[in-house]
Prior knowledge:
The protein has about 400 residues and is of the alpha/beta class. It folds into two domains: about 5-180, 3-Layer(aba) Sandwich (Rossmann fold); about 190-395, CoaB-like (Rossmann fold, 3-Layer(aba) Sandwich), CATH 3.40.50. About 35% of the residues lie in helices and about 25% in strands. The chain has helices at about 15-30, 50-55, 75-80, 90-100, 105-110, 125-130, 130-140, 170-180, 215-225, 255-265, 310-315, 330-340, 385-395; strands at about 5-10, 35-40, 85-90, 115-120, 145, 150-155, 160-165, 190-195, 200, 205, 230-235, 245-250, 270-275, 280, 300-305, 320-330, 345-350, 365, 365-370, 375-380, 380-385. The strands form six sheets. The chain has an eight-stranded mixed sheet, with helices on both faces. A five-stranded parallel sheet has the order 2-1-3-4-5, sandwiched between helices. The chain has a two-stranded antiparallel sheet with strand order 6-7. Helix 1 runs parallel beside helix 2, helix 3 crosses helix 5 and helix 9 (about 215-225) packs across helix 13 (about 385-395). The two termini are about 20 Å apart. The model has no long low-confidence stretch (mean pLDDT about 95). Ligand PMT binds near residues 211, 254 and 327.
Amino acid sequence: MLKGKHIILGITGGIAAYKSVYLLRLLIKAGAEVQVIITPSGKEFITPVTLSALSGKPVVSEFFSANTGEWHSHVDLGLWADAMVIAPATASSIAKMAHGVADNMLITTYLSAKAPVFIAPAMDLDMFAHPTTQNNIELLKSYGNHIIEPTSGELASHLVGKGRMAEPESIVEKLTAFFATGKDLQGKKMLITAGPTYEKIDPVRFIGNYSSGKMGYALAEEAARRGAQVTLVSGPVAIKAKHPAIKVIDVESAKQMYDKCVNIFPDVDIAIMCAAVADYAPEKQSDVKIKREKDDIPVIKLVKNPDIAASLGKMKTEGQILVGFALETNNEETNAQDKMQRKNLDAIVLNSLNDSGAGFGTDTNKVTIFFADGNKKMYDMKSKAEVAKDIIDAII
Ligand code: PMT
């Protein structure tokens, strides 16, 4: 699976850097073309000579080559890569990646890379457990990076705990599994909705919800990775799509999302409605900020928004697949099945706010998929990237 793949191996300054030599050897043996980028402190632990001898390429570390003045283009490297693996990733490099501190060649390349990024943390147990490190790791996950969890055991400090870099064999296994998923959506066009909608009350206020867009964006990344051409109609979110095959159309209100979706739907093979669309919008929007008056409490009259999924369900033609989501708080199964029927969906993905770790804002989700033919599939709590994979597998 790794044969001919372009892989950037990023090495940062930790004692586990010695394992990266073995990792590099395994990648080369598997047929990958590997470009090593090492941070200045990484070179304190392992020499570029060893790495360039094994990779067959000069090791990149600085922005310029000291001898020739040649500029190393982080942009070109980022675009060349099919995957980037940072192993070991120290607490400091993880923090820089999470916050965009581009003060060395590796982090600059990471910020330019379009390819999937795998991060194998390695550090002392308390550094790993520290809320700062954990928050940074969560942030990196929320940007779609893959974290290869460290294992527990004796650390360089001789303390015992979680912080040992995953073994090179297991990192190669993860990469192989990632590339093993074929391009089974090649040639397919997909429409995915994500995020919340904002229904404007006045220039400073809106009716919205807690959707972060993480689930919808994870679906878009997974579909694009498997070869689909994805149009992602997104409500206001703080995340960015990474894969070049994803075209993002930003909208704010349910009406705007509806207009885009009905236009795009006739041309797609598969549509997944993951957005948390507001069911109601204020009937009138004030052009000026509504003032706080003494006795006069404003009453906002609401009107129904169009139901996008139901409208697409009516437009659906033979061969098109339409999948919805149901976010429920009670009578979950009945409500989800009812929505699937009413909206003429081929399947519906149920997530319940009664499962902690599922639904809005989290990096994880727990779903059950109901199919129009009466079948159902239940899944464990997983990262939203893994849930996206399950959903796409189920659709296929
Ligand atoms: O964005 P995250 O923070 O990662 O959270 C993910 C999520 C919880 C938003 C997502 O997993 C999810 O459940 N999305 C659907 C939320 C929702 O609005 O569910 P619903 O049961 O109210 O709607 C049912 C279906 O109809 C959904 O496919 C929805 O997109 C669609 N709908 C709803 C109302 C409307 N006016 N038009 C619609 O198309």
